[in-house]
Amino acid sequence: MTADQDKSIKSLVEQRIPGKSLDAAFYTSDDIFKLDMREIFGRHWIFVAVEPEVAEPGDALVVNVGLSSVILVRDDNGDIRAFHNVCRHRGARMIPEGATMIGNIVCPYHSWTYGLDGKLKFYEHMGAEFKPGCNSLKPVALRSIGGLLFICLSDNPPTDIDDMARVMEPYLAPHNLREARIAHQADLIEEGNWKLTMENNRECYHCGPNHPELTIPLFAYGFGFSPTELDEQGRAEAQRYTDLVDASCSRWEGAGVPSREVDELTGRPTGFRTQRLPIDQSGESYTMDTRAACRIPVGAVQDKALGALSFWTQPNSWHHFMGDHIITFTALPLSANRTLVRTTWLVHKDAVEGVDYDLERLTEVWKATNQQDADLVAIAQQGAEDPAYEPGFYSPYTEGLVEKFAAWYIERLKDSLA
């Protein structure tokens, strides 16, 4: 990046007005995209997978984050490790993106072979002076929080992930993610900048007219609302929802299931938020009839009306934990105007498709919602690229979490550019 480019970006960061959307360049500029990949995705904790994706020794998963490729593998001792997918000989990419099963990590170029612990096991023609112990695979920082796998590509990962782990482990433990299995996984390319993907996720202002499936299990007043625009009946309904949230949280926490809101989205490198909220009608699951999609609970809690524990992390994930299944989402930038959204549905490891659950019923709400969101992100990207675009005001009632995402992003850029 040239000095002029650096100065221009610093100016954009400094002039950002709280409560308004970002300048167009943050969604369209290739220079800012490169900065995002270096400073946001290169230095922060990124959610990439779940433990059941590498359930057994030898199970491996390759995830690409920008130009970096990372191998996640469960070793012979049952521990999950992460390595850069770069051979220590001449740097060849060793395993293609996706899931596989391996006994060793073998470079296809010259057959250098590494154990699942990353140590170099086999090589030829290197001479007596060569030191194999100095040529192990380069490790990548890895943390599992309740079975959710986070990596950090920096050599100095933010240490405040310890705070997130301390808070979130008790919230996630009742759902026993580590004892679940993948029922379905779907990748969707959104034609928009990764920040538009995240901003869209952080609000439900758009939900009413755009998500007919999702708004069946979600309460209307859970989206946020302007109190001054409600009539007497509306105010009464909103109060009933507030009372239901309080009563439900008290009931769940009384049963040993942490549920109350924790909001740490800003003011820290590893921003996060969690809250368990009631589901409408039967209160059981994100399905078209709001009833459990899987007969076998994913955790130890037998209360079917467990609502949905939502967990958001900066910069790239959101998750929903219910009594019958779990859904995780990760957003991985591909370019300044394209983003991969990967959705994973999990059920109890003993659940059998066609017997304990119907896959279409399990996935239909979020498959529809994801495509609807992708369509909205695409038109938002088109708008950001229009010369007429200028930052607009966020709703103080329904877009507070969008503002917190934008504020966190600007905080992190200020920190890095300083």
TrEMBL record:
Q: Which UniProt keywords apply?
A: 2Fe-2S, Dioxygenase, Iron, Iron-sulfur, Metal-binding, Oxidoreductase
Signal peptide segment: none
The residues covered by the Rieske domain are 47-151
Show the InterPro entries listed in the entry: Rieske_2Fe-2S (IPR017941), Rieske_2Fe-2S_sf (IPR036922), Ring_hydroxy_dOase_asu_C_dom (IPR015879), Rng_hydr_dOase-A (IPR001663)
The reply to whether Iron-sulfur figures as a keyword in the UniProt entry is: yes
Write down a Pfam family by its short name: Ring_hydroxyl_A
Q: What is the name of this protein?
A: Aromatic ring-hydroxylating dioxygenase subunit alpha
Q: Which organism is it from?
A: Acetobacter garciniae
